[in-house]
TrEMBL record, chain A:
GO molecular function terms listed in the Swiss-Prot or TrEMBL record: proton-transporting ATP synthase activity, rotational mechanism; proton-transporting ATPase activity, rotational mechanism
Species whose genome carries this gene: Thalassovita mangrovi
Subunit structure: F-type ATPases have 2 components, F(1) - the catalytic core - and F(0) - the membrane proton channel. F(1) has five subunits: alpha(3), beta(3), gamma(1), delta(1), epsilon(1). F(0) has three main subunits: a(1), b(2) and c(10-14). The alpha and beta chains form an alternating ring which encloses part of the gamma chain. F(1) is attached to F(0) by a central stalk formed by the gamma and epsilon chains, while a peripheral stalk is formed by the delta and b chains.
Protein's recorded name: ATP synthase subunit b
Similarity section: Belongs to the ATPase B chain family.
Keyword Transit peptide attached: no
TM helices/strands, residue ranges: 6-27
Record lineage: Bacteria, Pseudomonadati, Pseudomonadota, Alphaproteobacteria, Rhodobacterales
Length: 242, 223
């Protein structure tokens, strides 16, 4: 085997030319493109990173504002609650005060009205008492001859049948004349004469009964003719209730 | 002519005293084709690459990635030599498929030229990366008594680099010639397809070994 040194030298030079050729027309353009692409990628990545940072900052700002708003809302709620509590307390106090005033005023009014009612009632009672006294005392005499005259007039005014009933009643069992205080002998005599004239044959007796208060009662066995104050008061009261 | 050695350079013509062999002419043709193709393909390289530019980018970045894995450092300073070595070897080895052409690597001069360049480049890269004294001192490691063996290994590995490429391509060319001689024109086609594979593999092996030698020189790996 022999080596052609010319060929070896030429091939060495040729390969060095190939190295230059590829470096000039292949590697350098490709490297420039790759570097440009990498630069663009880096720029895009940096841009994306900047946007990410901006988004992160915006998010942090948003969260901070949200927290701030939440805190402000919480404070506002607390303030409103406090304000509402104070207003409620003030309203309660005002209502209690107003209620107390109303109660006091009502009590005062009731007291006044009660006093007025009592006064009116007293006046009415006084009027009633006056009426009762007038009725009890105003219908003729309650003692003495006047009383006897009034009894006689009453008996005389009765009808014949009533008188006959009373006479028959008195004739069998007697007639008792009741007065609040005991009559004198003369008065008893006057009474006996008057009753004997109207109820002949009847046994006439006299009794005292403080309960009749004044006047007199003719007590038959089965009937009573009252000319007493108590009877008048009873009738007056019945009329007042009327 | 029948007595001429098939290993002898096939001289086509002379330029003055300089004999121009077929291997040289084939290399010039490859260089011209490369120049024209790259000039057209990368006339206006853009970031938004077209299909041809994208394919070239894939080739370059793939080679760069392989170099980075072996060198363990930025491959771009080494790419002009080693990338050109791979591309040239692929094209030169595949010249066998062109009718009438023979691969330049099938003759000893071209592998020898490439191995010589690798030998010299590894020292240049080593001295530039580590400094002259430190680079020369590595021949004394791990023991100064190993200096002769270290120097001898430098020579033998360069020689083996040359012979491996030359032997494979030359033998393949002989096999094709013998098969054509014995069986005709159609039968060698599978062998031609096999030759494509062999050519690419040999280009890859030569480039990887050259990269390993240079990596050892710059201190990236142990050779």
């Amino acid at each position: 085997m022999q080596i052609d040194w010319w060929t070896l030298g030429l091939q060495t030079i040729n390969f060095l030319i190939v190295v230059w050729l590829l470096s000039r027309f292949l590697y350098q353009p490709i490297r420039r493109v790759i570097e440009a692409r990498e630069a663009a990628d880096r720029k895009a990545a940096e841009l994306a990173e900047d946007k990410t940072r901006a988004a992160e900052a915006a998010r942090a700002e948003y969260e901070a504002k949200q927290a701030e708003l939440a805190e402000a809302q919480r404070q506002e709620e607390a303030r409103l609650h406090a304000e509402m509590d104070s207003e409620r307390q003030a309203m309660l106090e005002a209502a209690e005060k107003e209620a107390a005033e109303l109660v006091s005023e009502a009590r005062e009014r009731i007291g006044r009205e009660r006093k007025q009612a009592l006064d009116d009632l007293g006046d009415q009672i006084a009027d009633l008492a006056r009426d009762l006294a007038r009725k009890a005392l105003g219908e003729g005499a309650l003692e003495g001859d006047g009383l006897l005259e009034r009894v006689n007039a009453r008996l005389d005014s009765l009808g014949v049948a009533d008188m006959d009933d009373l006479r028959s009643d008195a004739a069998g069992n007697g007639l008792r004349i009741v007065t609040a205080t005991s009559l004198t002998g003369a008065q008893q005599g006057a009474w006996r004469d008057a009753m004997a004239a109207r109820f002949p044959g009847a046994e006439i007796g006299f009794e005292t009964d403080a309960a009749i208060l004044g006047g007199a009662e003719l007590r038959f066995p089965h009937a009573v003719l009252s000319f007493s104050v108590a009877d008048r008061l009873k009738r007056a009261a019945a009329e007042l209730k009327g | 002519m029948m007595d001429a050695s098939p290993l002898a350079p096939d001289i086509l013509f002379h330029l003055g005293p300089v004999p121009i062999s077929r291997a040289v002419v084939t290399t010039w043709a490859i260089m011209a084709a490369l120049a024209v193709f790259l000039k057209i393909a990368l006339r206006r390289p853009t970031v938004d690459a077209g299909p041809v530019q994208a394919a070239l980018e894939i080739v370059v970045t793939t080679i760069a990635t392989q170099l980075r894995e072996i060198l363990g450092r930025d491959p771009w300073p080494f790419l002009p030599l080693l990338g050109s070595l791979f591309i040239f070897l692929v094209l030169a080895n595949l010249a066998a498929v062109v009718p009438g052409a023979s691969p330049p690597t099938g003759h000893i001069e071209t592998p020898a030229a490439l191995a010589l360049i690798v030998f010299l480049s590894s020292h240049a890269y080593g001295i530039r990366a580590r400094g002259g004294a430190k680079y020369l001192r590595h021949y004394l490691e791990p023991n100064p008594f190993l200096l002769p063996l270290n120097v001898l290994s430098e020579l033998t590995r360069t020689f083996s680099l040359m012979i491996r490429l030359f032997g494979n391509m030359m033998s393949h060319e002989f096999v094709i010639a013998i098969v054509v001689f014995l069986a005709g024109l159609i039968v060698p086609i599978p062998f031609l397809l096999l030759g494509i594979l062999i050519g690419i593999i040999q280009a890859y092996i030569f480039t990887v070994l050259a990269t390993v030698y240079i990596a050892a020189a710059v201190g990236a790996v142990e050779a």
